[in-house]
Amino acid sequence: MTASTAMTLSAYNSDSEQRTKASLARLQQLVADDLKRVDALILEKVKNGIPLIHDLTRHIIASGGKRLRPSLTLIAAQLCGYTGSRHIPLAACVEFIHTATLLHDDVVDNSSLRRGEPTANVVWSNKASVLVGDFLFSRSFQLMVEDGSLKVLKLLSDASATIAQGEVMQLSTANNVATNLEEYLAVIDAKTATLFAAACAIGAVVSEQGEKAEENLYHFGRDFGIAFQLVDDVLDYSASEASLGKTVGDDFRDGKVTLPIILAMEKASESERQFWKRTLEDQEQQEGDFEKALELMQRYGTLKASVEQAVAYGESAKNRLKDFPASAAKEALIDAVDFCIMRAF
Amino acid sequence: MTASTAMTLSAYNSDSEQRTKASLARLQQLVADDLKRVDALILEKVKNGIPLIHDLTRHIIASGGKRLRPSLTLIAAQLCGYTGSRHIPLAACVEFIHTATLLHDDVVDNSSLRRGEPTANVVWSNKASVLVGDFLFSRSFQLMVEDGSLKVLKLLSDASATIAQGEVMQLSTANNVATNLEEYLAVIDAKTATLFAAACAIGAVVSEQGEKAEENLYHFGRDFGIAFQLVDDVLDYSASEASLGKTVGDDFRDGKVTLPIILAMEKASESERQFWKRTLEDQEQQEGDFEKALELMQRYGTLKASVEQAVAYGESAKNRLKDFPASAAKEALIDAVDFCIMRAF
Description:
2 copies of one chain form a homodimer. Chain A has helices at residues 3-14, 16-45, 51-61, 68-79, 87-109, 120-123, 126-147, 150-173, 181-207, 211-238, 241-244, 250-254, 259-266, 270-281, 289-299, 302-319, 328-342; strands spanning 113-114, 117-118. The first copy, chain A, is mainly α. In chain A, strands 1-2 form a two-stranded antiparallel sheet. Chain A is globular and about 60 Å long. The two termini of chain A are 17 Å apart.
């Protein structure tokens, strides 16, 4: 931990209550009208006389997600002073790709709960989730083609390929306690950060702000995405189920090797290594194992160290905004990064 | 059946043995060099340091499919006198989308055998099939973006969305013996014909032959695709497993309501309706049911009537080629249609 992240961390700790409440509100307020148009467009674009597609999309859209990714496209366009309307369908494209990924993710992970609601594969079937995911994915590309920007098409086809690669990588490295920091970061970069990056960069593309702005927003989104996923992975060990909207301990039960475990493995005694191997690699878990895992993470401070990594990525993200003039949109983006990290406190 | 399709049908019957042997050979010979370049490109584009993606794609590519769809792009480009090289990556795009669809299809259908080989979901897992399918799909769009034609992007994003819609439709109407001809045609049009259509039209697009040629090749592909699927559905009741490369009777066991059944339902007595309802809708099948189904199809001539429909679509397809000057490529396309129909004899 550097001196500056330590300082930032203590600043977060000092007024966490207040900041947690404040921070996403500004972003949500600024994009509220645009987001309504995005939602209306999404529901219009899935009306095709096939009830299953409409019902399933509605289920996901209505299940109370934060809609962070499309909001990033909308607020990034505002940051760049955009006054047109191309950001609306393109934000819908981002949400379509994200939703398709969630649908396929839940099938692959055999999940039953997301954002506190039963997942689509439980309500309908794995078959429906696979096929409706494919449909939403294709629909997204149709919308991009209508918009006509090859730059946007490149951003989102690259992001989609990277997401799929990240998921396959995760499949290959799952339950492997030898996973190192570099491999872990490669997976969360691919699975989460790339779509954050593309979502933000699209705001600069539609505004025709030039390559420097696109690049800055791309890297803002990417560092933000990594910070976001780092915190998500910490929350899987520390959040209350109500605030997380999914089952706490899922990652542990599934044997996912995330940063708090990688750091605990680095410091583990031989018997502790055997514990991680038994529970995560061999998937032989018994009563009290989750509590034992938590205790080891506390002992070695690995949850805190993981949050510190998130803080560093968050700072790097915010630093990417320095060339943009002061605006409500800029403040909202900074707040969003802070909010994402504050969730861990 | 019109007089002309009856005539064509009898012509098919008269020299079926010879025509079956001859017909795909000409196409395969004309595209052989190009297809090698397509295969090399496909394998290059899935090399990304993730063995699972490479292995699984190789498994499908190497499993001896006819490669009809990418060949259609290649031969259509030849038909239009194309001398460039854009058709190579775009044929790879068509094959990527087709392969992604197969991977997801096998998961949805719980298939275990395709083209006489174990399916990828059996060799690897459903998870791998879902994710690698997503990757190939994204990779296809990346390649299209590199090519840079919004027309191609529109053709293949429309085709992908339509395929997914067709699959979902089929999910909604599966095991419903009240399915009518119109609904059945809508499903095979979406599931099969649209990609044939796009594959052919791309040949005209890269050759810059104008809208009329694009339209003719699009409709050639579409009618060809419908004929192809009609025959495929007949073969599920009449082929030997060796020649079909999948398990005969799969459609019956899965309760898929294809044309031979729709036509048999139209003529069914009350007890026969109960038979179809029990076996396909209620999925209560017992020893001898498949043989009974075959007997009813023979009694009402529904396999023959289905082939006649295929012949009519095949004639319509060939008619779309009349404005193109005589060439080896044109003969090869006509042969390909004939070959597809001859499989039924």
